[in-house]
């Protein structure tokens, strides 16, 4: 497994692979890899002879009171997981490599980045959009893979890629879950086993919301939100930030759910001091 740490060597490798006829898939991550990341690496490895996984804990997407310094870092373990799943290279730059002195440009994506996660975490999506753009410019992939667990992030990144005409295909793969339904996340490492059980209420609420939409002929978003909030309210140790049923493309508030447009059910909640997000998307019919 080759681990590259500078942008110059990364770009050189990508260019030489392309000149030899290889296509390149990439999986941007912040490390602390879990089976959710593994599923992305595996799919990229099926689709492309070269799969680069980036491992970079991006300081610019963390707020001042968030967990940047305590975020789990485990490069040796990550290298093994990448290799086991068919990845061919890791790009693990330092903070000064990605943000050298004098760096000042930031990408602001607009409305889709201002609501929900964007409202709770000011500056978060500017940090994400900017680093994803920089990672794509370093790895020069044909296809980039993200997990659906960070649904709003997938919309923000798609919009940035389309608005900036970045020539890369975007693939979004399903969320991988524990048996309890809890979505896999690097932040689950912060949870005790008791808290993991409590956190699985988030998926139970999403499943109930999704059942109501699938069974009903005419369904109102408020009805779905109330059902999700009722289930979440049964778990005293969950502090709910939002539990919403919104337009899946714009994240705008909806009144009635249209089968031809679908819906996004999105929840953010804290268990102890750990903030978790999850979603279920009802596809348009
Ligand atoms: O989803 C993540 O792990 C991060 O937000 C990403 C896309 C790697 C950017 O730092």
Biggest sheet: strands, sense, closure? Answer: 6 strands, parallel
Order of helices and strands: EHEHEHEHHHEHEHHHEEE
**Ligands bound, unique:** pantoate
- What is the approximate shape? globular
- Low-pLDDT stretches: none
Distance between the termini: 43 Å
Strand fraction equals 15-25%
| Helix content class | 25-40%
Class inferred from helices and paired strands? alpha/beta
Tally of contiguous helical segments: 10
Structure in words:
The strands form two sheets. Strands 1-4-3-2-5-6 form a six-stranded parallel sheet, sandwiched between helices. A three-stranded antiparallel sheet has the order 7-8-9, with helices on one face. The chain has helices at 7-19, 35-47, 75-84, 95-98, 117-120, 124-139, 151-163, 193-199, 201-215, 221-233, and strands at residues 2-4, 24-29, 50-55, 89-91, 143-147, 169-173, 238-246, 263-271, 274-282. The radius of gyration is 19 Å and the shape is globular. It has ten helices and nine strands. The protein is of the alpha/beta class. The N and C termini lie far apart (43 Å). Residues 28-30, 58, 61, 128, 131-132, 150, 153 line the site of pantoate.
Summarize the structure.
With 285 residues, the chain is α/β, with parallel strands linked by helices. Helix content is 38%, strand content 19%.
